[in-house]
């Protein structure tokens, strides 16, 4: 259909959820698991939250 907002294939460089989870999900789980093991989970979650806020602000 002409003018359709849907693409036949994913545009190059577009970060989709499956791709994001593949790159970030497993390393994040390992990192958080290690932080939980060493008892610094709260500090790690604070650092991750601040990093995400700064990244979102920077990209705005």
Overview of this protein structure:
This protein is mainly alpha-helical and 60 residues long. It has one domain. It has two helices and no strands. It has helices at residues 17-38, 41-59. The two termini are 33 Å apart. The model has no long low-confidence stretch (mean pLDDT 86).
The total count of strands amounts to 0
The biggest sheet amounts to:
none
- Separation of termini? 33 Å
Task: Report the average pLDDT across residues.
Answer: 86
Q: How many domains in all?
A: 1
Q: From the alpha-carbon coordinates, what is the Rg to the nearest angstrom? A: 17 Å
Order of helices and strands: HH
The amount of beta strand, in percent, is under 5%
Helix content: 55-70%
Unreliable sequence segments:
none
The best one-word shape is elongated
Structural class: mainly alpha
Number of helices: 2
């Amino acid at each position: 259909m002409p003018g359709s907002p849907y693409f036949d294939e994913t545009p190059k460089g577009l970060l989709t959820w499956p791709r994001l989870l593949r790159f970030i999900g497993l390393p994040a789980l390992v990192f958080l698991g290690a932080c939980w093991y060493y008892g610094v989970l709260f500090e790690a979650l604070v650092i991750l939250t601040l990093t995400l806020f700064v990244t979102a602000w920077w990209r705005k």
